[in-house]
Give the backbone structure.
Amino acid sequence: MNQFEINILGCGSALSFIKHSLSSQIINFCGKLYMIDCGEGSQFQFRTMKLKFQQLNHIFISHLHGDHCFGLLGLIYTLGLFKRTTDLCIYSHPEAKRLFQPLIRYFCKEISYQILFRSFDPNCSELIYEDQKLNIFTIPLKHRVPTVGFLFEEKFKKPCVNIIQEMCIQNNLIKNTHKFNDFNLSNKKITQNISKKTTNFSRKYAYCSDTMYHEKIIPLITNVDLLYHEATFKSEDLVRAKKTCHSSAKQAALIAKFANVKKLVIGHFSARYSDELSLLKEAQEIFPNTILANKFMVLPI
C-alpha cells in the first residue's frame, strides 16, 4: 500500500505558544511532500521531524491570515540557501501573489529556483492538483476572510493481478494458479464483488481550518478516512467562536458525525486553555473516535 501519512508541524491558533506552534502540516504521499499552511516557524518543525526539503514541491495556503502564512517567506529563503533548482508551486487565494511577490523579489532575489503561484476560487470546490496517484480539491469554508480546506484523495488503484488471481480461484473461475495467464479477464463471471475488492482502495484526508460551523462542507468530506477540523473553542465560549468565525469542539464533532468520517483530529486550539482534554471530552461525547492534534504527531492513513 502506498505511503500516506499526515505530519503535524503545528496546531495552535493565532496566538503562538510553545506547546503547539502555528498551523502547518506535511502530507507525505508516496515519498512526495505536500505542505498545508505555513505558520511562522514551520520550517523549524519541518527540520525537527527530519523531513526532506528536496521532497517538498507544493504548498497549499488555506487563507491569508498571518498564523497560516507568515512562515512562507522564511521557508522560501531557506530553500534558496540549499541551492534548490526545482520549481516550488504555491496554491492560494489570488491575493497571495500580489502580497508575496514584492517580498520575494526583495529578500529572495538570488534564489536559484522558480516560485509559481497557482490561484484558486475560494468560493467553490475545484480540483487544483492532479498526478497519476493523487487528486487535491479545495473545500470552501466559512471564515472572516476567503478560506478553503483541502481534500487529498488517492486515486483508485488498478486491479492487482495477484488479488484478481486469488479471487478467481476462490470463486472457482479457474482451478490452478498456473492457468491464470490463459484466463480471459473479460470473462463476465468476474463478479461485481471481485471488482469492488480489487479496486476500492482509495483513501481520503480532509483538512478544514479555519472555519465556523458550516454544514455545506459535509457532502465534500463524507466518508473520508481522516478529518482534521478546527476546534478552537469550548461550547461555553460559543459567542467568541461566532464572533471570530471559528468552531467549538462539539461543532467539529457534529461535522464528523454527519459526514460519517472514520476518524476526527481536532486542532487549532486557543491559547486560553491550559490543556485540551476538556475539548477532547466535549468532542468525544458526540463523535467517540476523536483525538487531539499535537505538534510532531504522525498519522498514517
